[in-house]
Write a structure and sequence with these properties.
Order of helices and strands: EEEEEEHEEEEEHEEEEEEEEE
Number of helices: 2
Structural class: mainly beta
Largest sheet: 4 strands, antiparallel
Helix content: under 10%
Number of domains: 3
Shape: globular
Length: 278
């Protein structure tokens, strides 16, 4: 809809047929782009073209996991400082109907993430109440026990911060301890048409403050179910994890412990040798 002035005032242009938001709160706009959930997946609309952003990534997973009886509870939300769009939704494993999972889309990197273990009513922005250093004495026993940086906008009055109402109707902000994080590679072959043995995995983890579990998941045929061929803790003295896992197809999974700080979990470097075809 464009403002064109007299005599039409507004002009309506059709940009795409038979597509729209799947739920009342499933669309959100940031700057010149609108991100929304349609009946067949996730899209971004820049005012002239509709771009599928979930095809081949999360669309099928989402609709298999969504509790369709409570699809009206899907919420879209913008986290501008982190350059992400969040869709909160109720999964089939949550009988209460509240959103219990986040699908998170990073428009900066065109990547997706999944957050589980939640139970919220709605996502929203809240306005912070101002605090002085003296007022913090009534909240925490010492400066060391304050879980948020003193530079955080949480302590500045009138600042907008991301928040949610939990299942007890309480307003809470996303400033707690880090949850456990999982990153997993896609399935790969080290050598075409040849089985291989993975001997070393070097996680590319920056600023990791505690041990991370590294697992090698493998299978020999695409018709088989994958299994974990071994796990090891990182970081260690050598800077890599040792394995003796033989297969044709591999994936590598890294899992951090809860309350673990890190800057980046980028990926892994894998070292292996061919094992022949027999």
């Amino acid at each position: 809809m464009l403002f064109v002035g007299s005599p039409l005032i507004f002009q309506f242009d059709k940009v795409h047929a038979q597509i729209g938001a799947y739920a009342p709160q499933a669309a959100v706009r940031y700057q010149n782009d609108t991100y929304f959930l349609a009946e067949d997946g996730f899209y971004a609309f820049d005012g002239s073209a509709v771009k599928p952003i979930g095809r081949g990534k999360v669309d099928r997973f989402f609709y298999d996991d969504l509790a369709t009886a409570n699809s009206n509870r899907v919420w879209a939300f913008v986290d501008a400082p982190n350059k992400i769009i969040i869709w909160a939704y109720p999964s089939g494993s949550n009988s209460g109907g509240n959103p219990d999972k986040f699908l998170v889309y990073s428009w900066a990197f065109d990547r997706w993430a999944l957050v589980t273990g939640l139970n919220i009513e709605i996502l929203c922005q809240s306005v912070t109440t101002g605090y002085t250093l003296d007022a913090l004495d009534g909240l925490y026993s010492s400066i060391d026990s304050i879980p948020v940086s003193l530079d955080s906008t949480q302590w500045q009055g009138g600042q907008f911060v991301n928040a949610a109402f939990n299942s007890s109707h309480q307003l809470q902000r996303f400033n707690g301890s880090a949850m456990a994080a999982t990153i997993e590679t896609g399935e790969f072959q080290l050598f075409p048409d040849t089985r291989a043995q993975i001997s070393e995995v070097r996680p590319m983890a920056d600023g990791l403050s505690a041990s991370t579990t590294v697992s090698v998941i493998n299978r020999n045929n695409l018709t088989e179910s994958a299994s974990i061929g071994g796990s090891a803790a990182f970081p260690n003295a050598t800077g890599f994890c040792q394995f003796r896992t033989q297969a044709r197809y591999f994936r590598v999974r890294m899992v951090t412990a809860a309350n673990t700080d890190f800057l980046h979990l980028i990926g892994v470097q894998v070292k292996g040798t061919p094992m022949g075809r027999r």
